[in-house]
Give the backbone structure.
Amino acid sequence: MQGVLIAFGRALLSQLHFRMLLLTVMPFLLSVVLWGILLYVGLQPMIDWLQAYFTDNDGFRISGNLLAWMGFGALKTVIVPLIAMWVLLPLMILTALVFVGTLAMPIIVRHVGGRQYPDLEKRRGGSLLGSLWTALWTFAVFAVVWIATLPLSLFPPLTFIVQPLLWGWLTYHVMAYDALSDHADRDELHTILRRHRWPLLLIGAITGAMGAAPTLLWLGGALSVIFFPLLAAGAIWLYVLVFIFTGLWFQHYCLEALAQLRGTTAAAPRLKDVN
């Protein structure tokens, strides 16, 4: 637990560094431009298809009765746009994760490794294909479970339990692999992931709770539909910010674990690191 807290403090200092703050800009802009184009081209056809599907399959009556039974009858008039938004949300998360992973994580590795662990040998036990495969299969599982648990979004207490667990599981697998792939060899990577799986899962769960925060932007019912473009941009930026802090936290913890495994120590954090 002490190692988790120390890594948290170091990640917070690193997040305040100008370079790390600036690092949120490019993944955010790329995600917004990409989704701006996709939503402009495909959002209305998607809503029209859902509208036709609900009409042909008596979906409005069934969903209206279900929402009325749960006390959310007012949402039946915007149920189709809400479903479209919630289906698109995991895809927005994926693009933010991909852009952060490809653009931000290499910079995070160099930033943390160069400042805190300059003498830690790079043995490159991971690979780009390994990182891509880890990201793809974990996100595939994440997306399926996310969609399956969408009805729980109508019950906020359950949402705030399920989503952090999902995020914790996702970030534990993806971020820990990326954090160690440059510095650890294959055996060291698997050893650390096995020995430190519970602290890593704890970090993932905490950052998962942070990652659930953008979801609050989507719980506004009809207002969520009206302000969808602004909410989408705001959610993407928050996800990018959370992903970068998560990467820093995992990077500090994993490199410290690797340094201890090899019997070396990290450099003490310096105040100038936040300037």
Residues 2-274 form one domain. The radius of gyration is 21 Å. The chain has a mean pLDDT of 80.
